[in-house]
Amino acid sequence: MSNIRIPLLVIGLFSLLTQSVQAQETAVPRLIWKVNKVDLGTVFEEQGKQIAEYEFTHTQDSLFFIVDVWTDCGCTTVDFTKDTLEVGEVGNLQVSFDPSSAAGYFNRMIIVKGNLHNTQDTLYLEGTAIPYPEDPDKVYPIKIDGIGFRLPKLNMGEVFNNVPKVKMLEFYNFGEESLYADSLKFNTPEYIQLLQIQEFIRPQERGLIQVSYDGALKGELGYVEDQFAVSWDSLSVIPVSVIAEVFEYFPPFSKEELNLVPQLVLGTKEIDLKNISANTIQNRSVTISNKGQRALEIRKIQGNCDCLKLEIPKTELRPGESVELQITFDPSGRKGIDQRNIYLFSNDPVNPVQLFILKSRVE
Predict the structure, then answer these.
(1) Which residues form the signal peptide (predicted)?
(2) One fold for 136-247 and 255-362
(3) Are 347 and 297 in contact (CB under 8 A)?
(4) How far apart are CA 239 and CA 230, in angstroms?
């Protein structure tokens, strides 16, 4: 057997390279930021400059100080810790944003350069800036006792029952008194919670009320509408309408479970009644089957009109079982092309909401 000799120089270089790679893999960041992105949320122009704070901890043995900070927009100014920091000490930056410089969503970048090698970090500031309206009466036409709203109803959009949905209710104070957060009173069901964002809203200023909607506590699926009332000490009761589409949340599951879960299958997804008389009630049916390997539970059947009557003999189907959904449509008072939507909610995790369409031309 021949002897293979490896030069000592090669071994030494390999050792240094290995140590370098290990050092890179275990390198500790020089600065640990508490957060590197701040979301200011919705900011009104009349609120003036907004302050975002970023806190960091110096982790290295060497002394550290910030050399410079750059921003990508003149709308932001920065104040930062000027002191020299030892290991473990904390510093901070304060970024001031002028909302009059933007309209709509904004995303600003702040670059922080330190005295040590490779200490250049990037921070982010985002939010939505809303300019002050030239004509508040046009922008907030829904007025009730000195409070103006953009729309007659707050639309929460899709709400899943695994986590509350949060949305902002924007309003304008047309009154002559400030509206204080600690004087806000409301009468809401348990699944709706309110919080005034600003400490106070002066006359001729806009405010935000945070609306949190808990779909699990609501306990109902599909399109829903709720009414509640708010008031401040100096105002009478103001009614508010909230609409939402509530859906059941299903956690992810493996590909192997795909054939085991319940599976709702419609015999057809559309029936065309063609030409019908407005004086004749129509009766039709559609087959609902469970093609899965577990019990199918029909949570709710919802039509988009009071002209529909929907009946089903049972709401739980065994694997392979089918039932007939009876549909009664009263076209009285209607004329021309008509489409009725019927939504079926079930525990089918792949298609938890299915749509059935009933079309006609009413004469």
Answers:
(1) 1-23
(2) yes
(3) yes
(4) 7
H-helix or E-strand spanning residue 148 = strand 147-149
Q: Angle at CA 336, nearest 5°, toward 330 and 338?
A: 55
Is the confidence at residue 4, as pLDDT, over 80? no
Confidence of residue 22 (pLDDT cuts 50, 70, 90): very low
136-247 carries CATH number 2.60.40.10: yes
pLDDT value for 116: 84
Collect all residues with Cβ–Cβ distance below 8 Å to 264 and sequence separation of at least 6: 288, 289, 290, 291, 296, 298, 344, 346, 348, 351, 354
Question: For residue 240, which phi and psi values (nearest 5 degrees)?
Answer: -135, 135
- From its phi and psi, is residue 323 left (phi > 0), alpha (psi between -120 and 50) or beta? beta
64's CB contacts (< 8 A; 6+ apart) are 30, 31, 58, 84, 85, 86, 114, 115, 116, 119
Beta bridge partners of 39: 126
| Ramachandran class of 12: left when φ > 0, alpha when ψ lies in -120 to 50, beta otherwise | alpha
> What is the CATH code of the structural domain delimited by 31-130?
2.60.40.10
Q: Which residues pair with 355 in a beta bridge?
A: 343
Quickly tell me which residue has 């930021």 as its tokens: 33
**Nearest Cα residue to 307 out of 287, 325, 282, 326:** 282
The domain made up of 255-362 is a member of CATH 2.60.40.10? yes
Q: Is the pTM of this model over 0.90?
A: no
Annotated domain spans of the chain? 31-130, 136-247, 255-362
Residue 310's H or E segment, with its range, is strand 308-311
Two tokens, residue 214 = 């808990």
Burial 52-82 (b: 16+ CB within 10 A, else e): bebebebebeeebbbeebebeeebbebebbe
| DSSP output for 240-283 | EEEEEEEE-------GGGTTTS--EEES-SEEEEEEE-TTS-EE
CB 359 within 8 A of CB 331: no
Q: What is the pLDDT of residues 208-227, one digit of tens each?
A: 999 999 999 999 999 999 99
Would you say 122 and 148 are in contact if contact means Cβ atoms under 8 Å apart? no
